[in-house]
Amino acid sequence: QSLRRDVIPQILSNVGTEEITKAAEKIRREDSEKKKRKLKRKSKSKKDREMEKEMSVKKDMMSTEKSETKLRTEVTPFQLQSIAQYMEEQNIMGQVDAQRDFKQLTKVAEKIKKADSKKRKSKSAKRSKSTK
Length: 132
Fold this sequence. Notes:
Mean pLDDT: 76
Structural class: mainly alpha
Region (Disordered): 27-73, 110-132
Low-confidence stretches: none
Radius of gyration: 51 Å
Number of helices: 3
Shape: elongated
Distance between the termini: 163 Å
């Protein structure tokens, strides 16, 4: 019985220490994971900041520098205005031409109708004379 009494406290103490070590390991793992997360966040934020700086520098460079082709092809407001006026005039002239063409076509159609009606009248007059 003395052996049993000695073994039981040892088993209990072993179980207790195992639970404690497991809990300690769990805490260590959680702490290391938290540290890793923090490091990732910091590195991401540093990378983001660096990227933002690079992008802003590039945007500034692009906005201040104009390429030669852009300078050559850049249109002034006066040019735009004259182009708009030209297009408007062309549109108006096109409408005038279309109206003129329509009037001419209607005149030609009226002449043809008159000529046809004259022919009909003359034919009918000839018929009426021949029947009398």
